[in-house]
User: What shape does this take?
Amino acid sequence: MGDSITHGVSSGAVFRTELSWPALVARSIGANLTVPTYRGPIDGLPLNLEALLRIFQERYGDTLKGLEKISLPLYLHRLLDQNEDYWERGDGSADPRTDRRYENLGIYGWDIRDALSYTKARARAKVRASVPTDDFTGFKPDNDNDIAAWSVLAPFADAAAQLDAATSLGRDQGIGTLVVVLGANNALQVVTRKKVVWSGPDFADLDRKGAFTVWNPAHFLVEYTELVRAVRKIVAARVILATVPHVTVAPIAFGVNPDDPGNKWMPGSRYFPYYTDPWIAEKDFDPARDRHITHQEARAVDSAIDQYNATIVAAVADARREGRDWYVLDLCGVLDGLAYRRFRMDEAAAAANNWRPLALPPAIADLDARFFRSGPHGRTQGGLFGLDAVHPTTCGYGIIADAVLTVLAGAGVSTKPLDFAALRSKDTLNSKPPALFEEVLGLLSPFLSRLVR
Assistant: This one.
């Protein structure tokens, strides 16, 4: 049960959910796990950036020539319009199937309040009330999040939210291990929107909470306490609660220093003076023009997440004192261990913060957590995060799955190690890097910051 990381989002869309971390874990313990699937003209919901690049490459080849640089944006608009039509008016707008209850209950975009209160009926009503529009500047279908939520919750009662669905699965068939990965979206919009808006008194209001990009730790405590209270009632042999990653580690938060390129705001610090969009070159960054948060804001958000995680760890400790078989999955520690520009490239910061790098399996040891880049000669950096700079690649999901398997092994569950070499061969972004990525990024980067809000 979780958000986009559990749902299986990569490079902007839910697709290839059979390679999501829950599916990888299930296969490694010899279990079957039913997962939702999403098709469409660009293979996924809402917008598969990798598939778009494959389509461009098939049409234009490995490089763009002359007038092709002019025709590509027009072709892109046509593809986006087809994708929008499919999900708003075509087959993708049909009622989802109700004959299969998914054991991966992840819903992208979900925060803790959504998991508690956002019901199937609400998602369905929003989809059906949506008036499709052909917006020239639109790049994803309207109400895509509600389409995804309805698809996951469809087999359950109208009044069922994500927590209720898990409760129903536990009551009807029992759950061996319930893994809860929620809380990242209580802070993630700080880096996707490059805007810090602390939660106010109406933080639990489904209609008003969208104005906030980060939850006050006291508000998070209220929400998570309610979540834990509900989880305690679910019939599960064991429960794993995941900590919340520091959102400023993801490459969508690109640290820059216009006065001293490549360096932090002071020696030994974790933080750059500003964090902006990763497609903006450091030399071109202008704080008066470009979206950004400051290092003071980044530090405050990371501090809030540390307090979120203290709440999560305390919930597990309380449960264990009562004899419950509960565990912590330190997802925050995993992501911190991959921090590239924050620590790996800065020995002073690594030493000052007692940084411990996460050892990667040999088959993926050449990949890193920077913004993915590739060209006609292959991948040039990154590889653990997809093209949306927020969600993992298949190899990145393997790292999460491996961390879950480590917790399960410690709990006495028989596990089989992941074959990272085989997993990498299935990771199309890394095994067949898009040749046109740099050229397309260069063409579209002037518009991206206005589109990605």
